[in-house]
Amino acid sequence: MAKNKKENANTKVNEYGASMEKIVSLCKRRGFVYPSSEIYGGLSATWDYGPLGSELKNNIQKLWWNEMTRKHDNIVGLDAAIMMHPRTWEASGHVENFSDPLVDCKQCKTRFREDKLEPEVLKSRICPECGGELTEARQFNLMFSTQMGPVADSGSIIYLRPETAQGIFVNFKNVVDTSRVTIPFGIAQVGKAFRNEITTKNFIFRTCEFEQMEMQFFVKPGDEDEWFEYWKKTRMAYYDKMGINSAKLRFHQHGEGELAHYAKDAYDIEYEYPFGWEELEGIHSRTDFDLGRHSEYCGKEINYLDPQTNERYIPYVIETSAGLTRSVLIALMDAYHEENLGTDSKGNEDVRTVLHFHPNVAPVTVAVLPLVKKDGLAELAKDIQDELRDDFTTFYDKSGAIGRRYRRQDEIGTPFCITVDYESKDNNDVTLRFRDSMEQIRVPRAELSERIRKEIKNYRRPE
């Protein structure tokens, strides 16, 4: 195969991004995300992650975990239970405050969140769907309840956690007593949360079952503003390592009407989705509300003894809370690209669909492709794949024309393709193809792993 070859030298690069319809279609077609229980007609606002979606989600989670724990000496991990003592949610304020104001149409029975309706709709009390009359608002608690124990009665009611943060707060004393941590320090957790959302839309953006990546950072009262600024800057910089376009990200500060009951200050990192700017991650200055409330409700002191000053106090908290499932969505949206490659041999427009994932999160890092299945090339390609498995997520594909196989890998976002051809048998080298540029170079087999690691380390997404 020719050295330094490109499949088409006249590549026209178009803008990144896609409509929600294209993202949903690609996810179903290529095995990223499926409707949950689809054979039974599906279940609203729930989704299953397929082979590629699972890899993408796991890679994002791993990147976040490494950034938050392994690169910080003062942050440790936790994996708390989904079901917690019901007093937890009384102390946190969720039983009292975690609700939405809902209105119903008396005619078509459609339900709306009152705070999301346009002012003219609220004034006229006319349904935006059918023109019928709207009911007065009533509060609807967003927590899912269930029963624990053999008898279903009011005393057995517990909740599926609506957030992962409370598992961290109720374990604060356990972590301090067992981990030799000293303030300032953080506790990180990734886990599922559940909210009985009435308004569920935009694919996996807002669902009833989702995953959060949260870190609660405990600081001495008076130091919270300094650490709040540190984590704002640190968390925004993280998305560059995910390969997200910085022009699609911005901060939004919560105004007085938006601040949660526990917050001193709060910022959202917002992403520009196809449906507008919406929250991706929250950074909150929570004061000492959480530990103070749990101390009050459990009847035990929850505080910290400073070993340097012998001072005892309730720490303040800086929270970073990112949506894992929303991170999957922005990774897909931000990476999606359609490139006009001119016209094919039949005169038709040739458009390449490609996901420009950062190699840190791509579901497949390296695809290994024998040029043909005969003459020992397939066996040689499998040997090379086996050599690379320990270092990278690999995929082997021997079916179809090589160009078509390249396009399949482009569409799922594989950064590197290795083609094994007849020269590989004679010279012990292979063709390494780069997804973004479509450039192809010859690389000695013995240098493959080192070359790919170098490319990942220095990776920058094309503009």
Could you characterize the architecture of this molecule?
With 463 residues, the protein is α+β, with helices and mostly antiparallel strands. The protein has 3 domains: 29-83 and 163-332, BirA Bifunctional Protein, domain 2 (2-Layer Sandwich), CATH 3.30.930.10; 101-141, no CATH class; 364-457, 3-Layer(aba) Sandwich (Rossmann fold), CATH 3.40.50.800. The protein has 14 helices and 23 strands.
The whole-angstrom Rg is: 26 Å
Distance between the termini: 28 Å
Shape: globular
CATH class descriptor of the largest domain: Alpha Beta
The number of helical runs is: 14
Main sheet?
7 strands, mixed
Instruction: Please identify the structural class as seen in this structure.
Output: alpha+beta
Could you tell me the CATH topology label of the largest domain.
BirA Bifunctional Protein, domain 2
- What's the structural domain tally? 3
Share of residues in helices: 25-40%
List the helices and strands and how they pair.
Elements: H1 20-30, E1 33-35, E2 47-49, H2 51-70, E3 75-77, H3 87-92, H4 94-97, E4 99-104, E5 111-113, H5 119-124, E6 138-141, E7 145-147, E8 157-159, H6 165-169, H7 172-179, E9 185-194, E10 209-219, H8 224-241, E11 249-253, E12 265-273, E13 276-287, H9 289-298, E14 304-305, E15 312-313, E16 316-323, H10 324-335, E17 336-343, E18 349-355, E19 366-370, H11 377-388, E20 394-396, H12 402-412, E21 416-420, H13 422-427, E22 429-434, E23 440-444, H14 448-457
